[in-house]
Amino acid sequence: MPGPLEGIRVADFTWVWAGPTCTMQLAHMGAEVIRMESMRRVCTLRMLPPWPDGQPGVNRSGYFNQYNQGKRSIQLDISKPEGAEMAKQIVAMSDVAVENFASNVIDRLGLGYEELCKVKPDLIMISMSGYGRGGPESGYVSYGPAQVPLSGMSQLTGYSGWQPMHVGMSYGDPNAGLHAAFAVLSALFYRARTGKGQYIDMSQQESTMAVLGEGFMEYGMNGAQPPRSGNRVAHMAPHGVFMCAGEDRWLSIACATDDEWRALCGVMERPDLAGDARFRTLADRKANEDDLETEIMSWTLTQEPFEASERLQAAGVAASPPFMNRELAEDPHLSERGFFVEKEHPEVGVRQHAGIPWRMSETPCEVWRAAPIMGQDNDYVFGELLGLSSGQIEDLKARQVVY
Amino acid sequence: MPESALDGLTIIEYNRTGGAAYATKLMADLGAEVIKVEPLTGDPDRCLGPFPGGEPHPEKSGTFLYLNCNKQSVMLDITNHTGRQVLDSLLRDADVFIHDIPPAEAEALGLSDKQVRAGKDRLVTTFISPFGESGPHRDWKAYDLTTLSAGGWTWLNGWPGHPEMPPLRPFGRQSAYQAGVNAALATMGALLARLRTGRGQHVEVSAQECITAILEMTFAFWPYMNAPTARWGQRPIHPIDFFQCKDGGWIFVLCVEEHQWQRLVELMETPEWTQWEVAANRFVRASNWDALRPFMEEWVSQWTTDDLYKAAQAKRIPFAPASTLSQLLDSEHLKARGFFVEIAYPQAGTIKQPGAPFKMSETPWEIRTPAPTLGQHNETILGERLGLSGDEIKSLNGARVG
Asked: What is the per-residue pLDDT for B398?
C-alpha cells in the first residue's frame, strides 16, 4: 500500500456513515484500516440499499461498499470481555483509533481512551458523537440526517416563503468524517514531532455549524435569521436553476459580472436584454430578479440542458445541469480523469464507485481493494497480526467472540 | 517543542472562491502561520458580505472575517514582475502554497505547479479548481451553485411531489467548504509524507469530485440498481421527515433502527395505524409514507418543539429540532461546551461565531488574532522578513495607482 500514510494502522470501531467516511480518507492515503464488525449489531449501512437486483445481503450494499473502500474487515464481538481484549491488542499495534458510537458507549465497552492508552501510550483517538462529550445533551442520540436541522442548516435552506428544508443528504455525516480525518492527520503530524498522541472529541453538531459561518456572521452583525432564499444570493444575478425542455430537466446558471450577463444574453440571442435598463448592473438585476428569471426561463424552456451548458461555457458563462447519478456515472470528464473506482468485489462483482477527489504527484493515493465482505480479513488479523493458532481461533469461534 | 499541532508551518494562500481560505483557516486555527497574498483590490471575499446594515465595506464582510482569523495579509500585484518575484521569495521559505485559481488562468499567471515548484524541493503546492487540472471540462467556468450542480448535489435537494420547483442549493458555499476541507486533509497527507521523504509534492483538488464523493447512497443507486435518483435523495426508510409543532417550530422526526421506531410507537401510545401492515417495518413505511404521514402530523401538532425533542431523546429516539441561529447561540449545551467564540473585529464589531469543529486534548484550537485588514502585514512580512525597504514596499503598492 503506497501513499502518504504508508505504515500507519487504524483500529476502526466506526459504523453508519460519519465514522467510515473518516477512516476511508485514511485508507485512501495508504493507512491499513481494520474494521471491527459486530455480528450482533451489523453496521446499519450493510443493511441499507442499493443492492444488486434489489436482493439484500450484508455484503451487497452499495451504500456500505461506497464508504468502506480499501479497508479490512474482521468479525469481532467487542461487547464480550475477550473480544474487547482482542480489540485492545489490535489498538496496541495501531497508531489511530476512530469511533462514532453515541457518547460514552466506548467507555462502557472498556475501550475508552484512557484504557487504550495503557496498551498504546502514544495513541491518537477520535470520538465522533452527535453532540460531543460533555454538556447537558451529550447523551442524546443522533444520526446524520438529523444533524442538518439540528445545526441550523435546514432553517437556512429552502425556497423563499416555504418551510425549512433538508439538503437532500445527511450532510452532517461526511462533513464530520472529513473534518475528523483532517484532525487525525494534524495529530499524526504533532506526534511525529513530539512523540505524543492525543484524544480528539468531535461533535457532529459543531462540525456542521463550522460550515455555516456566513449565516452566523450575518446574525452576529444584523441580529436577524437570514431568510430562506431558494437559489438566489446577494452577490450574483442571475443565480438559479432553470427549467428546460423535457421532463424534470434543469440548468443552473450563475453570473457574477456584467460581462457574464451580456455573454448569457448573446447565447440566448437576446441583444435586447443586454441593453435592457432593468438588467444592466448587478443592482438592477437584483432589483428585477423575478423579471430576470422569467426572461431566462423563456429561453431555457426551449433548451436541452447539457447542450445549452456547452454553449454557455464556450461563451464564458458558468453553467451546469444538475447532474443525477446516471449522468455522473456516464460523465466523460469524470471518467477521463479516472475518478471512478471499479474493483472486483467477491459478491457484487465490478461496480462503479466514486473515488478520491484529490491527486498527489509523488505519493499517489489509490483504492487498493473494494470494500470488504464481513470478516474478509479474519485470517490475516487473527492469524498473522495477533498470532493466534487455528485451534485458538476455532475456540474463540465456538464461544462467538469471533465468527 | 511545538506548542500547537501545526506550529512552525508556514502557508502562503491566494484565495478566490473560499476553498483556499477555508483550507488554510483549518490549519491556521491549529497554529500554522498563514500569509494571505491579496491582490491590490483585496481577496474577492471582502466584497461578498454579509455586511453590518447591508453596507458593503472591504473590512466588514462576514464571509471574509469568518474565514480569515489568525492570518496575515500582504498586498501584492502578482501580475507584475516585481510582485511575482516577491511571491517567489515568500514561497522559498514556505512549506505550503494553496490557491484556488482555475488551471488555465493559473498557468497564465505563472502559478501552475510546474511554474511554482521548480527549485523548491520541499514545497507542497495544493491547488483547488472546480473541475480539476485535466479532462474535457478542465476550463469550464464555475461558481458554487454550478459546482454543486455538476457534483450532483442540487439534483438531490428539493421537494418531492413538487416537480415545478427547481433543484435547490444548500445554504452557504458548500462546494468551497468541501474543497477546503479536502484540500486541508490532503495537504496534511503530503506534509506527513514529506517527514519521510524530505520532498514536497503537488496536490490537486477537484471541487466537483469533492461533492460527487459524498452523495450518500444516491450515486450507488445507478451502478447497483440502474435506478436514477430523486429529489431529497433516496429515502428508503421512514420516518425521516419534518413536522410542525404547535408552537410553530419544526421537528425532524427520525427513526433509523427498528428499535427506535418501537420506542416511538410507545411514546405515541401505540395508535392503531402503527400496527397496520403498511407500517410494519422501515421499508414498507417508506413505500406507504404518503398515507401514514397525516397520522404522524396530527400527533406531532399536539406537542411543543422542545417538549417533543426532549421526550423523544429521553427514549433514545434521534429526533432533532430545526434550530434557528438564535436558538443555537442560546443553547445551554453549546454554552457548556464553550463552542461559540466571541471575536472583536476592529471595524465590524464583536461577533459570536462558530468555534472549533473538534477539540484536541493536547493541542489547542484557538483564534489568536481577528482577520487582517488588507495589507496589514506588508511591513512585517515584506519589510522585516524579506528585507524590502520602505520605498520598495511603497512602489509595490504604487503599482496599484500606476
From this structure: 63
CATH class of B240-326: alpha beta
Q: Which stretches of chain A score pLDDT less than 50?
A: none
d(CA B209, CA B192): 23
Spell out the CATH class of A239-320.
Answer: alpha beta
**CA-to-CA distance for B64 and B61, rounded, in angstroms?**
5
Per-residue pLDDT tens over the stretch B43-98:
999 999 999 999 999 999 999 999 999 999 999 999 988 899 999 999 999 999 99
Q: Residue B401 pLDDT > 50, yes or no? A: no
Q: Among B235, B337, B366, which would you mutate to test the A interface (most chain A Cβ atoms within 10 Å of its Cβ)?
A: B337
Q: Which CATH superfamily is domain B10-214+340-398 in?
A: Crotonobetainyl-coa:carnitine coa-transferase; domain 1 (3.40.50.10540)
Kindly identify which residue of chain A lies nearest to residue B316, measuring between CA atoms: A141
The answer to whether the CB atoms of A181 and B185 lie below 8 A apart is yes
Q: What is the pLDDT of residues A82-101, one digit of tens each?
A: 999 999 999 999 999 999 98
B343 in contact with A at a CB cutoff of 8 Å? no
| Residue ranges, CATH 3.30.1540.10, chain B | 240-326
Residue in A173, A248, A276, A395 annotated catalytic: A173
With an 8 Å Cβ cutoff, are A212 and B52 in contact? no
ipTM for the predicted complex: 0.98
Instruction: Give CA–CA dist B115/B112, Å, rounded.
Output: 5
Q: Is B104 on the interface with A (CB under 8 A)?
A: no
Tell whether domain A9-211+335-398 is in CATH 3.40.50.10540.
yes
Whether B234 shows a pLDDT value over 70: the answer reads no
Length of chain A: 403
- Half-sphere exposure of residue A163: CA atoms within 13 angstroms, side-chain side: 15
* Cell numbers that stand for A267 in this block: 447565447
pLDDT of residue B396: 80
A10-14, B126-130, B157-161, B294-298: lowest mean pLDDT where? Answer: B157-161
- The pLDDT value given to residue B233: 67
Per the DSSP assignment, residues forming a β-bridge with B342 are B352
- Indicate whether B159 pLDDT > 90: no
Task: Give phi and psi for B49, each to the nearest 5.
Answer: 80, -170
Whole-angstrom distance, CA of residue A118 vs CA of residue A137: 29
Rounded distance, CA A26 to CA A37, Å? 18
Partners of B244 in beta bridges: B250
Residues of chain A neighbouring B334 (CB-CB closer than 8 A): 135, 205-206
Domain with CATH 3.40.50.10540 in chain B: 10-214+340-398
| Cell matching residue A323 | 447532474
- Predicted confidence (pLDDT) at residue B400 exceeds the cutoff of 50: no
